């Protein structure tokens, strides 16, 4: 079995707001192996960012609160780590790149300095060596003339270039795991492809594991080894990319796939949307949170939360349809058999 | 850069000219004449004085004369202080006000910024409440109350500082504090808001994700970005404060420029009022110019 870098068990994160407790993450479990890419997909607001940010303890607490769960990094329980202890992990062992490269770099600091900070903190390199390291990094991420460009400010770069700088910052100390929170959402399609390619290349080169958050299934298809599908603060289905794309078992996963435009023009298929809106995270429903929008919903779905059912090795889903007592359905035809 | 400076200079000159012109004509719409207010002068005497100072001539002619003198740097004679030019009055009183203003700023600026930062960092904690309390107090207590209060405590009761007057450095302490408190309050409030705003920025999260310590993030990522609104505020603040404050100068019997702003208008001392407006205007325009240059040092995006 390959080495486990990260293991998350039953993670629950809430926000205390005036409107009440927002249960952003409601019992999420997953793991990440060495050198693999795990994609987390799901609708906006389902808790993807909060999940990964709580692993690095970047969620402001309060108003956030880690209610339950364990976070294991390289078999060490880091759930209760203080901010001080986390500082040694952040940037060195685990890194993050964010969605919007326009706002995630400090506008008043030269990019070289922004990379240098982390390098200096974690490696104790001398100034000269650190500078060489920065030039090497910038070359790795494809920034031309790194010796000149390291002295420039973020606003002098395009969005794609800034995201490359962000990647350089994140990979500066060769972390074992990289959280990429929608790293290409703010970029145009061509730049998007370049950045993804770069991430894949660097992953190969350094053996970094990647947790990739996205709601673009096209990106999942080209990047991910495994996929976790999130809905309303929970993972509803998880499996290899192949499992998820070819044998999805949760109606939500299936709905997501059907909402993907197909290039196959021979078939007159209409793009399908999933009707309704995601369940509220304040007082979430007692049963399955997708029941309201699910056309196969049974009585039990509204009353009890579905347990996780293993479908095959490494493929699991939380849906009552997977129970042996449930009627068999054909998700493609949309019929109950 | 050179082009920018020339352009700014041109705009400044036009601004000052507009300021002078509008004030010149507005001032003359005030009822009465400068000599009427002085009860002792008879009607004939008043007429004589008006003729002597050329105030009976057509307004447009007076305006042109004033402007051509102004261009040569001559702001004319005061109508109230016999035989004293406006230039000389400003020359003797401005340094006093400016020195008081600078002292107050030197006291208020570092403390205000520090309290603002501390308050934002400890948001919702006791330190924050204390800072907010100070800043509300500083903004809402009128300076004449604060001034008299300081005099009562330190001069009258404790007898460790002089009550008023402007001579030794010791004399400057109380008025400096009285003036500094309201500046400090404003600076604290703005810096706190600005720091809080910066705290939620994405790049702060990036900095945290790099593993930097809390204090390092504050120092190298937040404060510099939070300084932009402070600069905006600082331009007019410095200009106003250096011009002197009527109330503080009155309470502490300081022979500064501030008193003239009020006295010259109530006394319809046209030339003095005009002189002060133009002087103030030039000062304000310069301060804003410096601020615009300074922006560039703080934020490379607006570098010219
Ligand atoms: N500071 C906060 N206070 C209250 N609620 C919050 C806060 N931050 C996040 N949330 C809530 O937590 C939930 C999950 O947010 P999260 O950012 O993880 O969503 P996401 O899946 O990343 O969505 P997106 O695709 O839009 O980035 C959202 O419903 C959001 O309203
Ligand atoms: Mg998100």
Number of helical elements of chain B: 12
Average pLDDT, all residues of chain A: 86
Name of the level-1 CATH class of the domain at 87-268 in chain B:
Mainly Alpha
Number of helical regions of chain A: 11
Coarse morphology of chain B: flat
Radius of gyration of chain A: 21 Å
Question: What share of the residues of chain B does DSSP label as strand, in percent?
Answer: under 5%
Distance between the termini of chain B: 6 Å
* Helical residue percent band of chain A: 25-40%
Explained architecture:
The complex is a heterodimer of chains A (337) and B (304). In chain A, a hairpin with a 4-residue loop joins strand 13 and strand 14 (335-336). Chain A is 31% helix and 26% strand. Chain A has a domain at 248-336. Chain A has 337 residues and is an alpha/beta fold. The mean pLDDT of chain A is 86. In chain A, the strands form three sheets. Chain A has an eight-stranded mixed sheet with strand order 6-7-8-3-9-10-12-11, sandwiched between helices. With 304 residues, chain B is an all-alpha fold. Chain B has a domain at 87-268: MetI-like (MetI-like fold, Orthogonal Bundle), CATH 1.10.3720. Chain B is 75% helix and 0% strand. Chain B is built from twelve helices and no strands. Chain B has helices at residues 2-28, 43-52, 59-71, 86-121, 126-140, 143-157, 169-199, 202-209, 214-242, 246-251, 258-266, 270-298. In chain B, helix 5 crosses helix 7 (169-199), helix 6 packs across helix 7 (169-199) and helix 9 (214-242) runs antiparallel to helix 12 (270-298). The model of chain B has no long low-confidence stretch (mean pLDDT 87). The A-B interface holds A 56, 58, 83, 86-92, 95-96, 98, 100, 103-109, 114, 117-118, 121-122, 153, 155, 166, 169-170, 172 and B 201-203, 205-214, 216, 220-221, 224-225, 298-301. Bound molecules: adenosine-5'-triphosphate and magnesium ion (MG). Residues 15, 17, 22, 24, 42, 44-50, 63, 215, 281 of chain A line the site of adenosine-5'-triphosphate. Adenosine-5'-triphosphate (ATP) is lined by residues 15, 17, 22, 24, 42, 44-50, 63, 215, 281 of chain A.
């Amino acid at each position: 079995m390959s080495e486990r870098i990260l293991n998350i068990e039953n993670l629950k994160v809430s926000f205390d707001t005036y409107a009440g407790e927002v249960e952003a993450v409601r019992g999420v479990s997953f793991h990440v192996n060495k050198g693999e890419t795990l994609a987390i997909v799901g609708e906006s607001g389902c808790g993807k960012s909060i999940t990964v940010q709580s692993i690095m303890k970047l969620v402001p607490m309060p108003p956030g609160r880690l209610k339950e769960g364990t976070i294991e990094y390289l078999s060490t329980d880091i759930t209760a780590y203080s901010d001080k202890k986390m500082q040694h992990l952040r940037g060195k062992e685990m890194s993050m790149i964010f969605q919007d490269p326009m706002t995630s770099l400090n506008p008043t600091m030269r990019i070289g300095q922004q990379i240098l900070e982390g390098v200096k903190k974690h490696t104790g390199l001398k100034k000269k060596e650190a500078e060489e390291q920065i030039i090497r990094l910038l070359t790795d991420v494809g920034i031309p003339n790194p010796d000149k460009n390291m002295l420039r400010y973020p606003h002098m770069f395009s969005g794609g270039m800034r995201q490359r700088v962000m990647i350089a910052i994140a990979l500066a100390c060769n972390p074992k795991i990289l959280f990429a929170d929608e790293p290409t959402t703010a970029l145009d399609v061509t730049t998007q492809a370049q950045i993804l390619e770069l991430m894949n290349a660097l992953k190969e080169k350094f053996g970094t594991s990647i947790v990739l958050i996205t709601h673009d299934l096209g990106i999942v298809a080209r990047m991910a080894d495994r996929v976790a599908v999130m809905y309303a603060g929970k993972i509803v289905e998880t499996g290899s990319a192949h499992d998820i794309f070819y044998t999805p078992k949760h109606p939500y996963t299936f709905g997501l796939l059907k909402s993907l435009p197909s290039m196959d023009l021979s078939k007159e298929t209409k793009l399908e949307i999933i009707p309704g809106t995601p369940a509220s995270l304040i007082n979430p429903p007692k049963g399955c949170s997708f029941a309201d929008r699910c056309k196969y919903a049974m009585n039990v779905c509204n009353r009890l939360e579905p347990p996780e059912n293993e479908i095959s090795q490494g493929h699991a889903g939380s849906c009552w349809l997977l129970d042996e007592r449930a009627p068999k359905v054909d998700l493609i035809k949309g019929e109950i058999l | 850069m050179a082009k920018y400076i020339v352009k700014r200079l041109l705009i400044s000159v036009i601004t000052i000219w507009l300021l002078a012109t509008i004030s010149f004509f507005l001032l003359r719409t005030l009822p009465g004449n400068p000599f009427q207010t002085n009860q002792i002068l008879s009607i004939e005497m008043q007429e004589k004085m008006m003729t002597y100072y050329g105030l009976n001539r057509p307004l447009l002619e007076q305006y042109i004369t004033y402007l051509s003198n102004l261009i040569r740097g001559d702001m004319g004679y005061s109508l109230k202080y016999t035989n004293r030019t406006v230039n000389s009055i400003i020359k003797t009183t401005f340094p006093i006000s400016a020195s008081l203003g600078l002292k107050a700023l030197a006291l208020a600026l570092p403390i205000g910024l520090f309290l603002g930062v501390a308050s934002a960092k400890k948001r919702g904690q006791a330190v924050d409440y204390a800072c907010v309390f100070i800043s509300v107090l500083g903004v809402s207590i009128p300076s004449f109350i604060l001034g008299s209060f300081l005099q009562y405590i330190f001069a009258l009761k404790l007898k460790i500082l002089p009550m008023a007057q402007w001579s030794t450095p010791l004399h400057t302490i109380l008025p400096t504090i009285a003036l500094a408190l309201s500046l400090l309050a404003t600076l604290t409030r703005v810096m706190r808001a600005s720091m809080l705003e910066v705290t939620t920025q994405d790049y702060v999260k990036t900095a945290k994700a790099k593993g930097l310590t809390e204090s390092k993030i504050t120092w190298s990522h937040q404060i510099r970005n939070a300084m932009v609104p402070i600069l905006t505020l600082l331009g007019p603040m410095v200009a106003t404060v250096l011009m002197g404050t009527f109330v503080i100068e009155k309470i502490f019997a300081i022979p500064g420029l501030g008193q003239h702003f009020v006295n010259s208008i109530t006394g319809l001392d046209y030339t003095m009022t005009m002189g002060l407006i133009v002087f103030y205007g030039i000062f304000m325009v310069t301060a804003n110019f410096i601020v615009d240059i300074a922006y560039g040092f703080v934020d490379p995006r607006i570098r010219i």
